[in-house]
Amino acid sequence: MRERLKKKEIVLAPGVYDALTALLAERAGFEALYLSGASISYTRLGRPDIGLASVSEVADTLANICARVSVPVIVDADTGYGNALNVVRTVKTFERAGAAAIQLEDQSLPKRCGHLDGKSLVSTSEMTGKIKAALDARDQALIIARTDAIAVEGYNAAMERAEKYLEAGADVLFLEALRSVDDMKAAAKRFSGRAPLLANMVEGGKTPVLSAAELESIGFRIAIFPGATARRVAHAVQELFQILKLEGNTSRIRDKMFDFNGLNEVIGTPEMLALGKKYDK
C-alpha cells in the first residue's frame, strides 16, 4: 500500500465485508480493498453502524479476507476499541490478520457512522496519543487518522485537528463528512504534498459523491466507496425475496444471478477439488 501511494493515480478501494465480496472485487481488478466496519455491522449483525461490532469480529472477518485475496486491505478500526492501550492491541491484532492500512477515528464512545448526526469527540491530545500508540505498535501497516470534527466543532477546528494528527505521525489523513466540493478542494490544497488524503464516498451521505477521476484532480490520493457493496447487495436480495415469495421461483431473475456452476467457478471449487485429489491415497 505504501508503494502504491507513491504512484500518481488515485487508489480506488471498494467497500467489502467478507471473503466473497473481497474476492469479487479483486477479480474486478481493484488494487486495494476497504473493509468497512459499517458493512460488517449491516451484514453480520443486521444492525446500524453505532459501534456494535467488536474488535474480534472485525479481526476474524479481516483474516478470512486476507487469506483469500492478495491485494492490500484497508481496515476500519473505529476508535481502536478503547484507549491507547486498546489501540496497541488492535493494531497488532489487525496486522497479524493481514491489514495493509489501519484507520482510527477521534470519536468518543458510543461512536457512530460518520454520516449520522449526534457524534461526539475525544480530545485532540487523546487522539494524538492513540496515533502515537498505533505507530509504536505497527510493523509496516499505514496508520490512517480520521477526524469527525467537521460535524461537531466545524471545518476550521477539523483542519486544526488534522494538523495535530499529521504532526503525531499519521501516514494518511481522513477528513470525514466534508460538506461541499469547495471544502474538499480547500482541504486538499492545505494538505496536498504533505500527506495522502482519503475521500469517503457515501451514497446519500453528507459529502458530495464524486468520481475517482474528479477526486484525483482535486488532490485526493485514496477514494473509498465503503457501503456501496452492502447497499447494492441488500437491494438485490430484497428484490430476489420479493419475487420468490410472489412467484414461487426465481425464473424471472435467473439471468441476474450466478448459476450453480458459475458461482463454483468464482470461488475456485474446481481448483480446490483438484488439489484434494493430490492428497488422495
What does this protein structure show overall?
The chain is of the alpha/beta class. The protein has helices at 19-27, 37-45, 55-66, 84-97, 124-137, 149-152, 155-167, 181-191, 212-218, 228-247, 260-267, 269-278; strands spanning 11-16, 33-35, 73-76, 101-105, 142-147, 172-175, 197-200, 222-225. It has an 8-stranded parallel barrel, surrounded by 9 helices. It is globular, with a radius of gyration of 20 Å. The chain starts with 10 loop residues before the first strand and ends with a helix. The model has no long low-confidence stretch (mean pLDDT 96).
In short:
The chain is an alpha/beta fold and 281 residues long. It has 12 helices and 8 strands.
Largest sheet: 8 strands, parallel, barrel
Please report the total strand number as a whole number: 8
Helical residues, percent: 40-55%
Q: Give unreliable regions as ranges.
A: none
Supply the helix-strand structural class.
alpha/beta
Instruction: Give the neighbour order of strands across the main sheet.
Output: 1-2-3-4-5-6-7-8
Number of helices: 12
Oligomer: single chain
Order of helices and strands: EHEHHEHEHEHHEHEHEHHH
Q: From the alpha-carbon coordinates, what is the Rg to the nearest angstrom?
A: 20 Å
- The separation of the N and C termini measures 43 Å
Percent of residues in β-strands: 5-15%
What sort of overall outline do the alpha carbons produce when their principal axes are compared? globular
What's the overall average pLDDT, rounded? 96
